[in-house]
Each structure stands twice: as C-alpha cells, then as structure tokens.
Amino acid sequence: MKKESLKEPIENYNIYSLHQSTNKSINRKRIIVTVAILVAFLVMLTIIAIYTTDTLKRLKQAKAYEAQVISYQQELEKQEQQKRLEEEKKKQERMPKLTETGKEKLKHIYGSDKKRAFLTFDDGPSSNTSPILSILQERNIKATFFMLGSRVEAMPDTVKKVFDQGHFIANHGYSHVYSQIYACPENVLDEYNRTNTAIQKAIGEPDFNSHLFRFPGGLVGGKYAEIKQQAKQLLEQNDILNVDWNSLTGDAERQNPTPDQVVEGLKRTSQGKNSIVILMHDAQAKQITVETLPQVIDYLIGEGYEFQTFFDVLT
C-alpha cells in the first residue's frame, strides 16, 4: 500500500505542463523587460528631445544676444568715431588759417563801420594771466594774448588754459630783448618760430600757427626801425602778419599808474575810433591790468563796442 501511494504522484506528474508554466514565466519577464526597455527608450528620447529643444532655444537666445552685443559694439564704435570726428572738426575750427580774405581784413583792421574792440595782452603769461582769464570768463569775452616764448616755456599750463577757454594766442617773440631780437631780420623769424614751437607743445597741438606777430616795442620807429621793416617782409614771405595797436591803457607807460590813469588812457586813445586794438599787458609786474580790466570792459560796453579776437579776422 505504501509503495502504491508513492508511485501515484510520480505517475500524475506532467513534465509538459511544467515546461509550459516555465515558458509563460519567461515570456512575462521578457515582456516586462521589453516594456521596461521601451519605456526607458521613450524616456531617453523624451529627455533628448527636451534637451535638444532647450539647447536649440539657448543657442537661438545666445545668437540673439551675440547679435545684440555686436550691434551695441558697432553703435559704440560709431558713436566713438562720430565723437572723434566732431572733436577733430572742433580742433580744426580752432586752428588759425591764414586766408587771402584774412590778409585783406588785417590791412584794414583800424577801419570799421561798426564799433569793435580787440583786447590784447602782451608779455605773458604770468601769475596775472589767470585772474584776467577769470574776469573775461565772467563777462563772456574773448581776447588775444601776444605771448613771449620764454614765458610760455615757464608756464605751459596757463598757456593751455588760455587756449582751452577759447582765446587767441598770438606771437610776441621769444626774448623781448631788443638788442637780441633785432640783431638781424632772421633773428625775428627765429624768435617767432621758437615761440610757436613752445606754444604748440604747451597746448598739445603740433599744427598750431597763429600767423600773427607783434613786434616788441611796436613796428614803427625806434633805433631798430630799418631791421623791423626788413623783418616784416621776411615774416610775410613766411605767411606771418603783424599788428600793432591804435589804443592803449598806458599800463606800461608809467612805473606805477593809478586805476584812473589807466582808464583815462583808454578813453583818450580810443576817442572817435570805431575799430580799436587795445594794448595791455599781463606781465608779472602789471597787477594794475587785473585791477582795472573790469572798468575797461565796462567803459567799452557803455560806448557800444563789441569784442573780437584776431582769430575772427584772419580765418
């Protein structure tokens, strides 16, 4: 009995049934794995698609930003170039240019239908120049400074200040030593050129040339009259004109003139003249010029004069 009961289960065991069950299990696993792979693949494709889309978007944004940067840089370069052109134009506008019209106008400098006054200062710069500039700036008046080369080299910053404030810098020679400058006509030209070089360095403009000279002591008369006339011709051959004055305050005629004497000197020498070139000095010893300049200006304004510089004449 026992042997039969043991045999029955063995006889009832179906190997094909077991194999089928195993295959089903394997198939389920394969399906699960396949599905998992497909899901992973789809997820990966989705990630790639998202990443690609994001990357393309970022590239597009980067290109747009790059285009903006390039456009901005081009605009800055354009503005900078325009600024340089404007500065160059302004600089050229301030560079004296001797014209045929200017030469003709200078010949008739003392004649005018309208009242005009040229404030001119000789022998500077000095410590008196800056206070004079302050007065002129307050009144919005431009003047002409006939500078000595030796003083230009001593005070280049003041020379630059005169130029930057729009005044006209003209040439008064280098030394102001009569026996030296009037030793021969060539010395006058040499002193002009030496002074012009000093002015160029001081104002930082290598092309500057005022084309205008004032003879120390004036062109007319004196023991060096013949040399001066020869020098005048030599200067003109080099496109350098000269101008004296037809009115003066007398700030250099006396050792210590009073303010009343200075103003009276101007009134006396300008009487009945429409176009006046006024001689004054901004040398170190001429503090009186600073003290009386406001009165000089007030008088001229009261008489109906308009102020000009020789830049207005020559160019």
Keywords for this entry:
62% helix; two-stranded parallel ribbon; six-stranded parallel β-sheet; 315 residues; 2 domains; alpha/beta
What does this structure look like?
- With 315 residues, the protein is α/β, with parallel strands linked by helices.
- It folds into two domains: 2-92; 100-314, Alpha-Beta Barrel (TIM Barrel), CATH 3.20.20.
- The protein is 62% helix and 10% strand.
- It is built from twelve helices and eight strands.
- It has helices spanning 2-12, 15-94, 100-107, 129-139, 149-154, 156-164, 178-181, 185-203, 225-237, 259-270, 287-302, 310-314; strands at residues 116-124, 144-147, 168-171, 212-213, 241-242, 247-248, 275-281, 306-308.
- The strands form two sheets. Strands 1, 2, 3, 6, 7 and 8 form a six-stranded parallel sheet that branches. Strands 4-5 form a two-stranded parallel ribbon.
- Helix 10 links the parallel strand 6 (247-248) and strand 7 (275-281).
- Helix 4 (129-139) packs parallel to helix 11 (287-302), helix 6 (156-164) crosses helix 8 (185-203) and helix 8 crosses helix 9.
- The longest helix has 80 residues, at 15-94.
